[in-house]
């Protein structure tokens, strides 16, 4: 179970960082080399998706929950945006839903 959750987090980080590199390049904050980094991160993201135990809606729904929470952590740590109470309530709600889906795999 821990291996799957770590894989979800790594997948989310690859996807978020790939998109973020394109975003900061488009804002002209960084040079064109960041497009190469973006492409590499997004290729890593696609490859990591192939490592998940099964390609099904359940896996992607679970990944979606982890993605949202990792995105909020990214917002706080990288973009230095203060999270609101609603962000935290939403993250907890999503994590609870994700946990229900994960536990459902075991039944």
Could you describe the 3D structure shown?
The chain has four helices and no strands. It has one domain. Helices cover 79% and strands 0% of the residues. The model has no long low-confidence stretch (mean pLDDT 90). By secondary structure, the protein is mostly helical. The protein is flat, with a radius of gyration of 15 Å.
Biggest beta sheet attributes: none
Number of strand elements: 0
Shape, principal axes of CA atoms: flat
Order of helices and strands: HHHH
State mean pLDDT (0 to 100 scale): 90
- By oligomeric state, this entry counts as single chain
Question: What percentage of residues falls in helices of 4 or more residues?
Answer: over 70%
Question: Into how many domains do the coordinates divide?
Answer: 1
Q: What is the number of helices? A: 4
Unreliable spans are: none
- The structural class is mainly alpha
The fraction of residues assigned to DSSP E strands is: under 5%
- Rg over CA atoms, rounded to whole Å, is 15 Å
The N- to C-terminal Cα distance equals 14 Å
Secondary-structure map:
Layout lengths: L1 H25 L6 H18 L6 H21 L7 H21 L2
Helix pairs in contact: 1-2, 1-3, 3-4
What's a concise summary of this model?
The protein is 79% helix and 0% strand.
Keywords:
mainly alpha
């Amino acid at each position: 179970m821990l291996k799957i959750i770590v894989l979800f987090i790594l997948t989310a980080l690859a996807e978020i960082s790939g998109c973020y590199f394109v975003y900061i390049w488009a804002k002209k904050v960084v040079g064109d080399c960041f497009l190469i980094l973006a492409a590499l991160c997004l290729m890593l993201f696609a490859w990591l998706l192939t490592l998940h135990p099964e390609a099904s809606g359940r896996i992607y729904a679970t990944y979606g929950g982890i993605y949202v929470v990792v995105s909020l952590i990214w917002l706080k740590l990288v973009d230095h945006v203060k999270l609101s109470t609603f962000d935290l309530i939403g993250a907890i709600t999503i994590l609870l839903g994700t946990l229900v889906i994960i536990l459902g795999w075991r039944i």
